[in-house]
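Morning!

This is the sequence you dropped in the shared folder:
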Amino acid sequence: VQLRQFGAEVFTINLVGRLTLRELGVLMTAIMVAGRSGSAFAAQLGTMKLTEEIDAMRVIGVSPMEALVVPRTIAAVTLMPLLGFYSSLIAMIGGCFLAAVSLGIPPVTFIARIREVVPITDLYVGLIKAPVFGAIIAIAGCFQGMQVKSDAEQVGLRTTAAVVQAIFLVIVLDAFFAVFFTWLGWD
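The structure's back. Tokens below.
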């Protein structure tokens, strides 16, 4: 609607397509996964540490890293590209709907324009960033969970720290990726 003031509402499609696939779809997904899964990883492992389940695993010869941390990390790395792609797709469908309702741009025009102006490299950028973000979220959550030492209050503090740490690292890495992909010429 703001672009309409300048007669540039057709660029809405460019903005929705490129920003969604390249940046916002994966970034917003990573922030939500950090809040949901990163905190769950920290809370689960922290509680297991308090109840001495992790010590019991070590006693019977099971590595907590292999049994608890690696599966969570693999799951996050595997599923983040799928979740990022799904959220980007839903965001573009929402953008198409709002463009039709607010700006009178028909969905057929929206889809045709998306295909014209959004290069496939934007999809690749999002799909490359997603597993890295998943790894960061899982590692931050598991690391903070394993740092719990004394009481239940520590679980809450470490869970909060895991979310803050994961979101901060995801945003910093996103900025790094923006510079890196611009340097590669994928802009």
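Headline: The chain has six helices and no strands.

More detail when I'm at my desk.
O.
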